[in-house]
Amino acid sequence: MRLQGTMRVNDKNHLEIGGCDTVDLAREFGTPLYVMDEAMFRQNCRAYYRAFTEAYGAEVIYASKTLTNLAVCTIVEQEGLGLDVVSGGELYTAARARFPMERVYFHGNNKSPEELRMALEYKVGRIVVDNRYELEMLNAVAGELGVKAKIMLRLSPGVEAHTHEYIKTGQIDSKFGLAIENGMAMTGVKRALELPNVQLKGFHCHIGSQIFELQSYAHAAEVMMTFVNHVYQETGYTAEELNMGGGLGIYYYQGDQPRPVKEYADVMMGAIRAIAAEFDLPVPKVIVEPGRSIAGPAGITLYTVGAIKDIPGIRKYVAVDGGMGDNPRPALYQSKYEACVANRMNEQPAEKVSIAGKCCESGDMLIWDIELPPLQPGDILAVSSTGAYNYSMSMNYNRLPRPAMVLVNNGRADLIVRREDYADLIRNDIIPERLRSTVVKLASSR
């Protein structure tokens, strides 16, 4: 496993992160356990701030769908970034963290009237409108509240980034946005300019996630700025803002080659400025929405090894106490991860095994065919690059409680998400009174 951030091997031959021994963390907080490297998370925020904000005056907003809780929102605000939210729940979390609402951008392809009202009452900075239905609904809700909503229109630029099919979002055949190619975008712009209760500030696009080819961003910038020019020529409206989304890839597995944030910024901003000059347009304020590339590398997950099943000549399965409940990405996207034996770091790989989760699903496999030292029940397995989308996509399948999360820094570990217990699993369950009486009747009739 490639060590990242503050990870190192200490003198006990244990994996250490944030100055904390992972074996001690597993003992104190239990497993599965999400561990976030605060120093690396902050370092990644600062890399974006330097590359985009300081160098180009662009705004960086953290994509909270990647990983959000009260502590994460607090760190993001402290590092000078804005926040991208995609639901009422994420917006509520930001509000409870006292995040400055003027730095919040509200996304989502099917916002409810209640969510739009909530966003307007909270006075979020921008609402990113995804479709014509939402545009009309927002205009009506804003009218009822007597406010004018500041909006961006999400567009589909027709750019297909080379990534997993389920995390492509910029192509014309997508549930997100108004397509430029077929005229839906221009129709949406004209309608937005007509409506009395919305103020169009600019345009948004997002071409996908886990992207390594920076020319995909340059191409998207070219398409979007060309559209900005077409809108100006046809309507006289000049976009003030251009949100280019996020999606920069990170290292998960051997062969992944992440690009430096500065290079990403230079490629994108260079393309936007060149095309603006070509069309004699002002350079819009640029916004970017990193998420995975901030949170992903900063997280690891600790598991305890349990049952080991060796099928001679076929495969050796090593089961851990987590799985798709805390990391559904391998089942969803065939995502690949690296891992190490946290309590025996200096031992050399000696056998090929497959890491299985404990859910009652054949597809609950965390890692297929990984070379590790001989494993024993009770060993602590550390899986890297789990800061993005693992906790946020976690679930209670098989009624498994979600893991705890700790924030580590300078030898200190702070609990930022409590582990769920069995009582949490039934907290919202209700037995209707008629079922209770039915049970009584059935029992009395036997």
Automatic annotation (TrEMBL):
Pfam families assigned to the protein according to its UniProt record, in alphabetical order: Orn_Arg_deC_N, Orn_DAP_Arg_deC
UniProt KW Oxidoreductase keyword: no
Gene3D superfamilies documented for this protein: Alanine racemase, Lyase, Ornithine Decarboxylase, Chain A, domain 1
UniProt-listed InterPro entries: Ala_racemase/Decarboxylase_C, DAP_deCOOHase_LysA, De-COase2_C, De-COase2_N, Orn/DAP/Arg_de-COase, PLP-binding_barrel
A GO BP annotation: lysine biosynthetic process via diaminopimelate
Modified residues (N6-(pyridoxal phosphate)lysine): K65
Keyword Amino-acid biosynthesis: yes
Pathway: Amino-acid biosynthesis; L-lysine biosynthesis via DAP pathway; L-lysine from DL-2,6-diaminopimelate: step 1/1
Protein name, as recorded: Diaminopimelate decarboxylase
Organism name: Desulforamulus putei DSM 12395
Gene: lysA
